[in-house]
Design brief:
With about 280 residues, the protein is α+β, with helices and mostly antiparallel strands. About 30% of the residues lie in helices and about 25% in strands.
Length: about 280
């Protein structure tokens, strides 16, 4: 059973996401709502390279529990991103990558966070997503207290408001590129390119295989159906799973929770602050 350290009533907070929402921002929203000490904001971007921009800010006095919050389960995701963290008077920029399975991640504790989530297919040529896959996060070196090194130059830390300008500068400097083959593979519209070449380019640009990305999307659909009150049996049928064992195995691996646990979480308004690692139901 997955145990939890403490429970809080889910705050009545309006949930506003870019359209369609990302499982990354959904996970961040769920965490910040459980913490009750964070305010989470997310906005779309006009840049074709960016999926979403988000930030969290502390709203109340930190308790001893929040100073040592432990871990929470972060789902498998097919995107990558940059996170600027301000903590204890120090600013850092971290690149995190896609994940092939749900993994325990540290709750941020007393920190102010801002992040950019990039579209699938956008990547840094010298640091592609596969290098930071599965929690092999990379902290970019500091140049000064207000800047970091990237591509041989010092860059000022971006913020929530100027994120699009920062991304545009990366694109103009050829530090951020996009391979349109990712969209073509996703939409099944390959032209004049062998399947093997398309799969190789897809994996280089995303850090994942197309097959795994499809599994993630199916698991997310199943999660949404269960949270909407659809029965486990009907979810199996609508999401295209073979049987309950197939559904359970997929959700445990990619979401970190069993179907039964998702059904329970969708019923009461009481959620755990941080999912402690342990044996799932």
């Amino acid at each position: 059973m997955i145990s939890n350290s403490r429970t809080y009533q889910l705050p009545k907070q309006k949930r506003v996401f870019a359209n369609p929402p990302l499982i990354v921002t959904e996970a961040l929203f769920d965490f910040t709502c459980r913490s009750k000490n964070f305010r989470f904001e997310e906005r779309p971007s006009d840049s074709p390279f960016v999926a979403a921009v988000w930030r969290t800010q502390a709203e109340t006095v930190w308790s001893t529990h929040m100073m040592n919050p432990g871990l929470f389960l972060f789902p498998a995701v097919s995107h990558w991103g940059l996170v600027v963290a301000k903590q204890h008077g120090k600013t850092t920029l971290t690149m995190w990558g896609p994940g092939t399975r749900a993994t325990p991640a540290p709750c941020p504790g007393e920190a102010e966070l801002f992040g950019i989530i990039f579209q699938r297919g956008a990547f840094l040529p010298y640091l592609p997503p596969g290098i930071v896959r599965d929690r092999r996060d990379t902290v970019l070196p500091l140049a000064t207290s207000t800047s970091f090194w990237l591509g041989g130059s010092a860059w000022q830390f971006p913020d929530y408001d100027n994120a699009d300008t920062f991304v545009d500068r990366l694109v103009r400097g050829d530090l951020l590129v996009r391979d349109d083959i990712v969209d073509a593979v996703t939409q099944g519209q390959l032209k004049d390119l062998s399947l093997r070449s398309a799969q190789r380019r897809f994996r280089h640009a995303t850090g994942l295989t197309h097959s795994l990305v499809r599994q993630m999307e199916r698991a997310r659909l199943a999660k949404e159906l269960l949270e909407q009150g659809v029965s486990i049996f009907d979810t199996i049928d609508q999401a295209g799973y073979y049987d309950q064992a197939h559904l359970t195995k997929s959700l445990k691996r990619l979401i970190g929770l069993t179907p039964a646990h998702l059904v329970r979480l969708s019923q009461p308004q009481e959620l755990s602050f941080c999912y402690k690692t342990g044996r799932a139901d």
